[in-house]
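Chapter review: from sequence to fold.
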Amino acid sequence: GWSRMTARPNPHDPHSDPARLSARLDSILTEHRSLYERLDGLSERQSALIDEDRTDELLGVLAERQRVVDRLLAVAEELKPFQSRWDDLLASVDADRRESLREKVSAIQEMAQRVNDRDEHDRTRLAAQRKALSEEIAGVNKSRGAIAAYGGSVRSAPSPRYQDRQG
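The C-alpha cell string follows.
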C-alpha cells in the first residue's frame, strides 16, 4: 500500500518501526553474545581437559558445546532478516542504541575468533596426540607379534610338514 512508500512507520507492520526493530535486534544480539560467552568458556575448558588428558570429561564438554552451537544456529536464523538492512537500521536509531548494537556485534566477533583459534590449536594438538598414540600402539603390536611368534613355536608341536622336510 501507499503507507509503505512513506517514511512513517506502519502500526500494522512491526518491521517498519525502527525502534521496535532495533529493540528486537538488540535482544537477539544479547542472546547471541551470551551464547558465545558460554561457548568461549566451554572452549577454554576443552583446552584444559586436552592438556590434562581427561577424555571422559572432554566428551561431556563437547556434548554441551553442541547444544550451545545448535542454539547459536537457531539465533543466527533470527538475525537473517536484519542482515540485509543492517546499515539502514543503524542509521535510523539513536546514537546510544547504535553504539550498543555495534559493541555487541564486536564482542560476538571477537569471541567467535577466539573460539575458532583455540579450536584450531586443540585440533592440531589432538592430531599430534593421536599420531603419537597410534605409533605407540603400532609398536606394542609389533612386540606382541614377536612374542606371539616366539611363544607359538615353543608351545606347539612342530607340524608334520616340517618333520617331512627334515626327514
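Two observations follow directly from the output. Confidence is low (pLDDT under 50) at residues 1-10. The radius of gyration is 31 Å.
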